[in-house]
Design brief:
- It holds the Pfam family Abhydrolase_6.
- Keywords: Hydrolase.
- InterPro entries: AB_hydrolase_1 (IPR000073), AB_hydrolase_fold (IPR029058).
- This protein is of the alpha/beta class and 279 residues long.
- The chain has a domain of 195 residues: Rossmann fold.
- It is 39% helix and 18% strand.
- The chain has ten helices and eight strands.
- It has an eight-stranded mixed beta sheet with strand order 1-2-4-3-5-6-7-8, sandwiched between helices.
- Helix 1 packs across helix 7 and helix 6 packs across helix 7.
- The chain is globular, with a radius of gyration of 18 Å.
Length: 279
């Protein structure tokens, strides 16, 4: 039997350390999610499967070969995997692009038990070393946070990655807000909340406040398309509006009625993302 710590005697730092492990550990998929994943996973059979050395294990990636127009990388969100991004594959192939889809650490067939933005950025570097350069990146939710963090050069000694175009789908703009929302959900004190945020400085060398998507896109003006449902309750539309404040190189295309996950499979999303990659 697992004994739960006594929140009355646990120090704020110990509480934050324990909950950071929770924060970085993907939840098991529900039975319904597993069935949904199985339905789309068959689309990966047409790809070349790549095993990429990463830390103490390997990453799983998939390559669909187009007509050499350039490579577009697909990045899934939290508890997702490469399979959930495959609605973009056929349209991108038809446009002449090669397509790469990655399972983040601790997701899909990639090794690992934990994931956070710094690990995600390191995984992108490992993929880029084998498959780069890239024409563009299409990223959903957590994958979007990894995509803009990878542009920044703020993660340890990893240099900024470069790609010509970026599509952010239902992506969070403010990593401080992500941590604060998690802290409120777990009733953390201000001291424990700060200890939770301090893990970002330990992992990246920079405070969590540095990981603001609008500021990063202002400093690294990659042409960016933001696709977001106004009623999204998992990542609020406020994030989409914040991204656009980075400058005229960022455009917003609201997609009402599609929520946080259905947006990935909508024809409007796929068409808008593909057209943006072609321009």
């Amino acid at each position: 039997m697992t004994v739960q710590p006594d929140s009355l005697t646990e120090t704020p730092k110990a509480q934050a350390d324990r909950l950071f492990e929770v924060f970085c550990t993907p939840e098991p998929l529900t039975e319904a999610a597993q069935k949904g994943m199985a339905r789309v996973a068959s689309r990966l059979s047409a790809a070349l499967a790549l095993r990429i050395p990463f830390q103490d294990g390997e990453l799983q990636a998939y390559r669909f070969v187009g007509n050499g127009r350039g490579s577009v990388v697909l990045l899934h969100g939290w508890t997702g995997q490469a399979a959930v991004m495959t609605a973009f594959v056929e349209p991108l192939l038809a446009a002449g692009f090669d397509v790469l889809a990655l399972d983040f650490p601790a997701h899909g067939r990639s090794d690992g038990e934990r994931l956070h933005v710094a690990l995600g950025v390191a995984a992108l570097h490992a993929l880029h070393a084998v498959t780069g350069p890239w024409h563009g990146v299409i990223a959903h939710s957590f994958g979007g946070a990894v995509a803009f963090a990878a542009l920044s050069g703020l993660v340890g000694d990893l240099p900024p990655l470069s790609y010509g175009r970026l599509v952010l789908i239902a992506a969070p703009c403010s990593m401080p807000r992500v941590f604060e929302t998690f802290a409120r959900r777990h009733d953390l004190s201000p001291e424990a909340t700060q200890s939770l945020k301090d893990h970002v400085k330990r992992l990246t060398g920079n405070p969590v406040e540095a990981f603001m998507g609008d500021a990063i896109l202002r400093q690294h003006p990659v042409p960016t398309l933001v696709l977001h449902a106004p009623e999204d309750q998992e990542v609020l539309f406020l994030s989409a509006e914040s991204f656009v404040s980075a400058g005229p190189h960022v455009s917003l295309h609201p997609l009402p009625g599609l929520g946080h996950r259905r947006i990935l499979y909508a024809k409007e999303t796929v068409q808008a993302a593909t057209a943006f990659m072609e321009t």
